[in-house]
């Protein structure tokens, strides 16, 4: 057997980019992208991506160069998930909710060669580029080329520099020879877990990992041929949890909308017969907003903080099926999925919702997932009570953090990747998160490191001590709550003052929604902040949940030959993304 050779016929590097030429060949005349009045087929999308890739090469973009993009869910954002790596480059999608300083930090750290900016974010990009240019005066930063993405449906004429997206597509050559992928370990995308610190953590995905994650999620979620997918999840979140590539793999329709507003979402579901969408739990409130009814099931994948069982129950009653999962940027999206068991369908709705709030079992792209004692690395008992750290291993785990050896050494231990999240394993093998040892606050699907907000608070001239914890919020799921101690003799340290100070130094979603002035921050004998005490205090300060009137009636119909409740769409939740 040793004489058998690896040949071009029996070995091709795995890459999600390969889904696009297949979509062109198999689904060529079927719709690929819908955005307002704009319509593309898969053959058109394939040609447009090849044209853009050739234009990138003409601009001097080469292997492993980073191409950044600041844009909402528009056709250009979707196309770049293929065109940029087709040119041999690495795509970096930037969170549009960051402030200019954070955007500049990402551009600096990634050493981006080209920066695409949607017309809606020209002001933000301009401010970021000015910050970057100022840093470059000391020889520490390079300002990238800039290209504006005008609106594909209703062009505005807004420009920033001389390059424009559609012009680059138009002048590209669809028949040009593009670089061949030789190594599936090559980087395909770069995603930042945080852009607000001096050393942001850039997570690098490989072609192999992205391919396996895409295939795994399609199988775990049971996505069939020709789905109609509504882009409510930002594509800058783990590359749309790999569905940017997954829709090409299944010949689906990408329905793009700029903003995840209730009317836009429900209009799109009705008009285009949407079958699938992804969202953070905060979007559940939008889905339940108003007196809307579903003509057919809509499968929904949700991510962020684990949604409460009561919320999952309401979503099911409104016509959505919920499958809960867990993921993180470093795992190329999903890592655990609460795979549904047929016998659970016979349980009461409340019990089903409780089961679906668990994070589940490892997805197929992982070799293994476990909960271990972080000191001994021994597996905890499967009793649903013994806690430990969730650890993962498999080809879908990131290549590593870009230019951050210390973080890589801390995150990888032997054959395991340490998530920093604390959980338990139930007797049936399903994992459930109990806490986050890294004190990450998940607000509206955005990860907020409490330490970053604390560092800003300590910059306040009147604050002597500070701690930040998650506070429950009826709309955002969680929001930061700050506890501060004023310096002796300091004046003006109050909630309004502290919030105003934070707004000047961090992105808006990171600003504490509540500030409490304490005499002393509670600490244990080792001097560590007792955040469990502060979380308990914060929970009492949380705004009350609004309980809207139940407008959606539960209909009776026949599902799979059985009479029961209204057919519900399937929601898969990825916690922590």
Automatic annotation (TrEMBL):
<feature type="domain" description="AMP-dependent synthetase/ligase">
    <location>
        <begin position="22"/>
        <end position="402"/>
    </location>
</feature>
<dbReference type="InterPro" id="IPR025110">
    <property type="entry name" value="AMP-bd_C"/>
</dbReference>
<dbReference type="GO" id="GO:0106290">
    <property type="term" value="F:trans-cinnamate-CoA ligase activity"/>
</dbReference>
<dbReference type="GO" id="GO:0016207">
    <property type="term" value="F:4-coumarate-CoA ligase activity"/>
</dbReference>
<comment type="similarity">
    <text>Belongs to the ATP-dependent AMP-binding enzyme family.</text>
</comment>
<dbReference type="Pfam" id="PF13193">
    <property type="entry name" value="AMP-binding_C"/>
</dbReference>
<keyword id="KW-0436">Ligase</keyword>
<dbReference type="Pfam" id="PF00501">
    <property type="entry name" value="AMP-binding"/>
</dbReference>
<dbReference type="GO" id="GO:0009698">
    <property type="term" value="P:phenylpropanoid metabolic process"/>
</dbReference>
<dbReference type="InterPro" id="IPR042099">
    <property type="entry name" value="ANL_N_sf"/>
</dbReference>
<feature type="domain" description="AMP-binding enzyme C-terminal">
    <location>
        <begin position="452"/>
        <end position="528"/>
    </location>
</feature>
<dbReference type="InterPro" id="IPR020845">
    <property type="entry name" value="AMP-binding_CS"/>
</dbReference>
<dbReference type="InterPro" id="IPR000873">
    <property type="entry name" value="AMP-dep_synth/lig_dom"/>
</dbReference>
<keyword id="KW-0460">Magnesium</keyword>
<dbReference type="InterPro" id="IPR045851">
    <property type="entry name" value="AMP-bd_C_sf"/>
</dbReference>
<protein>
    <recommendedName>
        <fullName>4-coumarate--CoA ligase</fullName>
        <ecNumber>6.2.1.12</ecNumber>
    </recommendedName>
</protein>
């Amino acid at each position: 057997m040793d004489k058998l050779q690896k040949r071009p016929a029996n070995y091709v590097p795995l890459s999600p980019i390969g889904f696009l030429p297949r979509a062109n060949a198999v689904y060529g005349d079927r719709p690929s992208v819908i955005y307002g009045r704009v319509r593309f087929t898969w053959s058109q999308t394939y040609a447009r991506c090849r044209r853009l890739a050739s234009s990138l090469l003409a601009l001097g973009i080469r292997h492993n160069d980073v191409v950044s993009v600041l844009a909402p869910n528009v056709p250009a954002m979707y196309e770049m998930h293929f065109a940029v790596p087709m040119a041999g480059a690495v795509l970096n999608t930037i969170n549009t909710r960051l402030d200019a300083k954070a955007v500049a930090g990402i551009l600096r750290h990634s050493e981006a060669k080209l920066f695409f900016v949607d017309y809606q974010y020209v002001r933000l990009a301009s401010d970021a580029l000015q910050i970057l240019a100022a840093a470059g005066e000391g020889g520490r930063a390079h300002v990238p080329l800039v290209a504006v993405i005008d609106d594909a449906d209703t062009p505005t004429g807004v420009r920033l520099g001389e390059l424009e997206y559609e012009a680059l597509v138009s002048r590209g050559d669809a028949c040009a020879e593009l670089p061949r992928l030789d190594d599936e370990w090559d980087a395909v995308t770069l995603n930042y877990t945080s852009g607000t610190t001096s050393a942001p953590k850039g997570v690098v995905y490989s072609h192999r990992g992205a391919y396996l994650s895409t295939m795994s999620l399609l199988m775990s979620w049971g996505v069939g041929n020709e789905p109609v997918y509504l882009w409510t999840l930002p594509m800058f979140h783990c590359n749309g949890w790999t569905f940017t590539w997954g829709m090409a793999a299944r010949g689906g329709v990408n329905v793009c909308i700029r903003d995840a507003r209730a009317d836009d979402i429900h209009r799109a579901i009705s008009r285009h017969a949407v079958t699938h969408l992804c969202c953070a739990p905060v979007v559940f409130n939008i889905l339940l907003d108003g007196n809307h009814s579903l003509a057919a099931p809509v499968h929904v994948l949700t991510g962020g903080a684990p949604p409460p069982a009561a919320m999952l129950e309401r979503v099911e009653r409104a016509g959505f099926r919920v499958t809960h999962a867990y993921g993180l940027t470093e795992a190329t999206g999903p890592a655990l999925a609460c795979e549904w068991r047929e016998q659970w369908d016979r349980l009461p709705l409340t019990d089903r919702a409780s089961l679906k709030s668990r994070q589940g079992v490892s997805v197929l792209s992982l070799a293994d997932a476990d909960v271990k004692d972080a000191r001994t690395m021994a597996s905890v008992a499967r009793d649903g009570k013994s806690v430990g750290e969730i650890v993962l291993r498999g080809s879908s785990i990131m290549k590593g953090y870009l230019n951050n050896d210390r973080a890589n050494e801390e995150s990888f231990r032997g054959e395991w990747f340490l998530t920093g999240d604390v959980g338990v394993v139930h007797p049936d093998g399903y994992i459930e998160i109990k806490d986050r040892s890294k004190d990450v606050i998940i607000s509206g699907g955005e990860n907020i490191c409490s330490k970053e907000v604390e560092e800003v608070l300590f910059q306040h001239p009147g604050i002597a001590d500070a701690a930040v914890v998650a506070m429950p919020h009826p709309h955002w799921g969680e929001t930061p709550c700050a506890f501060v101690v004023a310096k002796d003799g300091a004046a003006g340290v109050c909630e309004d003052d502290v919030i105003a100070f934070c707004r000047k130094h961090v992105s808006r979603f990171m600003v504490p929604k509540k500030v409490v002035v304490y005499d002393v921050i509670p600490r244990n004998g080792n001097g560590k902040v007792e955040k469990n005490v502060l979380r308990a205090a914060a929970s009492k300060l949380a705004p009350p949940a609004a309980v809207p009137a139940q407008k959606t009636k539960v209909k009776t119909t026949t599902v799979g030959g059985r009479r029961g409740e209204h057919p519900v769409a399937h929601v898969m939740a990825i916690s922590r993304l």
